Sequence to fold (390 residues):
Amino acid sequence: MTEPGLTLTVRQRAPISMNAELSCASGEVLALVGPSGSGKTSLLRVIAGLLRPAEGAVACGGETWLDTARGLNLPARSRSTGFVFQNYALFPHMTARQNVMAALGESAPEKRPRRADELLEKVHLRGLEARRPAELSGGQQQRVALARALARNPKVLLLDEPFSAVDRATRERLYYELAELRRELRMPVLLVTHDLDEASMLADRMCILHRGVTLQAAAPYELRARPKNAEVARLVGLHNVYRGTVLEHRGGQTLLEWEGGVLEARLQNAFAVGSKVEWVVPPAHIVLHRRDRPSRGEHENPVSGVISDCVLLGENTSLRLRVASGAEIQFSVPTHVAQRNRISRGEPVTVSLLAEGIHLMTRTDADERGLKENPISTVAYLKRSPSDNV
Fold:
């Protein structure tokens, strides 16, 4: 029988505005993603019992930890949580072994050293048990913090940006180790991060947060391909968000009016004919027409314009295409493709917007505010491999 996972609801206006709901199954990794100040860490603190919301409920592993309607609020020490803080919060005067033993208070004293060493070996720190935090690298300190979090046999593991303080090479090793370790974990794992690449690699699902509100939770691919609205689209790094009108549904496709022309999109007949919609197309579904031979998508929604921006970013080149109406389409191609096609600022080019990638979204007042405020400016974008069909 599968163990119960974690569920949370939070409502309050001050001092931190929150209106959030989430769930995480046992054995699942849920990434909480959003700009700084969106409430990610606050939700972890509510789960751990370090922050009491005005209204809310937290249940985990078949136990209720918080239910403000019933006046129930278990203290942090009574909640079975493993918490890895952003700064690791290790005791500087203790060795790695002693830091882990400090979380083994319910074990018999004579068993604690051996159990601490087992946990340190599990996180690849065998032989470093006697070192203090100052004698360990950032990655090693993170491993000690993880071993200490697991020492309590928690019902939920809470990771608050655990990789932010280490260099890129160390971070990539830790990604691998966490992915390897999670196969053994039979508990919900909540990972707070502002890095969409990190969330996409490590999480089964991502929960998008903005201003204390949970906007959408889904698998990483689904969030990028099927965002709920324009605000979510921007928060997952999709720049190509536009407005249009549904013209008709026919032949397995939805026809969309945009900038005086007609685009073919995958069939989305939940939107009535005549609906004013927002729509988005991911960069991976934008195909550059080659000058030396026709491209695969040449006859699918061709759009012509002039390159308004061309920025070399190592192996990839980021491009902006300005069409006649003034709208801009952002995408990237491998740098060798840009060079072969003599792509530069001011050059006329044509691209195809692949119908399968065009996703329609309901237009709301919230989306209109998002268009003006562009909140994604504070969020790391997902890295996408440019289309190799160019």
User: Anything to note?
Assistant: Residues 366-390 have pLDDT under 50 and may be disordered.
